[in-house]
Amino acid sequence: MKSAEPTPQRGPTVGRGSRMRAAVLAATITELTETGYAALTVDAVAQRAGVHKTTIYRNWKTSDGLVADALAHHFATDIPIPDTGAVKDDLRALARALVATMTTSAGRALLTTALSDTARTPQLAEIKRALFEDRFRRAEPVVDRAVERGELPTDTDPGELLKALVAPIYFRLVFTGEPVDETTADRAVDVALAAAHAHALPTP
Amino acid sequence: MKSAEPTPQRGPTVGRGSRMRAAVLAATITELTETGYAALTVDAVAQRAGVHKTTIYRNWKTSDGLVADALAHHFATDIPIPDTGAVKDDLRALARALVATMTTSAGRALLTTALSDTARTPQLAEIKRALFEDRFRRAEPVVDRAVERGELPTDTDPGELLKALVAPIYFRLVFTGEPVDETTADRAVDVALAAAHAHALPTP
Hints:
homodimer, mainly alpha, Arc Repressor Mutant, subunit A, Tetracycline Repressor, domain 2, 2 domains, 9 helices, 69% helix, 0% strand, elongated, transcription regulation (chains A, B), HTH_TetR (chains A, B), Tet_transcr_reg_TetR-rel_C_sf (chains A, B)
């Protein structure tokens, strides 16, 4: 988005507007972390960001729109895409980065937010789907390159492999309350690679 | 629990009390399905179950206690443990039963409830952990029998295999919004078995 005009969907992105946007989104993440989605108010975000609340309403319309944008911004920038030349190293880097970002207090708070009663907030449900699609799309070259190098079977579906990689990590984060650490990440890599080599993650 | 006395933790379990308990828990599940956890009231449950609300408070103390008991009751009885003599058939039966129960409107509502802001309701967080532990413990003999028959490596950890089995199913249910069906279940089985055969699910 290179326009100099504020965009209604995402807030302004350049110059003074860009700094305002960054401050508001950061304040939103902090508010989500400290007080949670249910108790979040535009007033509190505005105060923390040092802007007037009408500025927020003008750019984001609703608090749900603000939260959705803050989540999208956070999740679009927290995991770098590796290219080490070896699939196992690339997947370990991805899985470990996911574990690192999701086990911070902000990561846990944002996960809780994304899991809020999305039946009541369709905008959050939609942004959650879009966030995961975007994350997978950005990471798919890791699998494509491994297939090109002959490290993985040619029938490997990149999206399926990436879902096999992250599912055990999210499952532990959300449901079991077990420790989630680098061992969790590395095991998830072993499971995903074994599945790919056994042709259990084929393209449709 | 064979006592004829109502138990404060779980409500009464035999005779007239048992019928009352079944009616109240069923009413709670229906209320969770139709109106959701955030809007659930003991009044509405009492009316639907045909009991006085003081009966509910006497047996469950709080609405969170009631919800926790209803979830525990539902999740303890919805997936039968198979014993076909073949690990692939057993795991398919488990995974397909999980998909079947979690894709009903009640299943989705209960999943949403379990994912509610558990930071604010520690009782729900605790019951969620206990539910998953219980589910895995009941299914572990499926893996133990497969190891005894020589179908799986002796280093296979039953809990790790079962988590590898269900994680891709829950991941899709909770995060991606993709269809979840028997194909999802059967693929999850292929992934879990490939991982076990590659020794990627070892006992600690």
